[in-house]
Amino acid sequence: MKHSCFSKYIYMFLFIYSTLFGAIREKSAMLYYGNDISYSMLGMHNYIIVQPESINTYSHSFYVYKNKMYAYVSIGEINTNIKEYKKVQKSWILGENGAWESKILDLTNPEYQEFFFKEQIEPQMKRGFKNFFFDTLDTYHIVKKTTKEKEESEEALASIINNFHKRYPDSKLVINRGFEIIDKVYDSINAVLFESYYSGIGGENFGYKKVSDSDREWLDIKISKIKSYNLDVIAVDYLPYKRMNEADEIIKKIKKKGMIPYISNRNLNIYGKSSKKNLIKRWK
What is the rounded distance in angstroms from the CA atom of residue 112 to the CA atom of residue 94? Predict the structure, then answer.
């Protein structure tokens, strides 16, 4: 009887241990663009994407977690409110993205490409950042209408990404979407992030919306190609804070698709939900 009871506890321990160990090994991501980041929220994540100007790179916590951190950089457009905008040449500007008060830039211009590395990448590296997250890859679609124009922009975009890898071979890179160029850059990146798989944002006012089945089917085709290159896929969905209780179910569905889930609000200025955070809370 004692032996049976002892065995029961052993099996229970092994079950709990294997469950927790599996959760620890499972990859996790978070995006936080707010100020005063709480470093206690970071340790469990493999991908920590942040606005670099909001991070104190002189802190001990940054030193501890910097290899997991990815500094946000916009590649296809530039906000008119940041200091780097003053150095942008008018000839590089192709149009405007009114939704974000930013200028769309000419990826094919060699001067802009060098500006990107000199003014956007290298200053953050000097601050201590090693890894980067490239956003606004597909902005050229707003201004480039012909097939030839789009192909030229895609070639330039792939060249910038591959050049990043050549210049900084020890740095890691995550890109936002970039589905059209994945065949040309898969060796230069570590993961692909995309937004809005089940619950996203869109429309003129960038409100919250449910993603249609047809849109998700289109995404599945793109995601399948990314997975064929053994790259991590990070799926970011959006919910208003008052509906964050819906996040757990979305996380389960995204995990079943073999992707790394993260759920937050549209401004990414709250601590959202990921699979690891939810599991740890459950076992407290």
Answer: 12
268-284 burial string, b = 16+ CB within 10 Å, else e?
beeebbbbbbbbeeeee
Round to whole Å and give the CA distance between 162 and 170: 13
Q: Where are the domains of the chain?
A: 2-282
What length is written for the chain? 284
* Whole-number Å distance between alpha carbons of 118 and 138: 22
> What is the residue-averaged pLDDT of the chain?
89
For residue 222, the model assigns a pLDDT of: 98
Q: Which residues are CB-contacts of 249 (< 8 A; sequence separation ≥ 6)?
A: none
Residue position matching structure tokens 């609000």: 265
Q: What is the CATH T-level fold of the domain 2-282, as seen in this structure? A: TIM Barrel (3.20.20)
Instruction: Work out the angle between the directed axes of helices 275-282 and 2-25 (0-180°, nearest 10).
Output: 150
Q: Are 30 and 247 in contact (CB under 8 A)?
A: no
DSSP for 170-209 reads: T--EEEE--GGGHHHHGGG-SEEEEE-SSEEEETTTTEEE
Helix (H, G, I), strand (E, B) or coil at 103: strand
- pLDDT tens-digit readout, 81-129: 999 999 999 999 999 998 788 999 999 999 999 999 999 999 999 999 9
In whole angstroms, what is the distance from residue 102 CA to residue 82 CA? Answer: 10
Please count the other Cβ atoms lying within 10 Å of the Cβ belonging to residue 43: 12
β-strand 29-32 against 191-195: which pairing, if any? unpaired
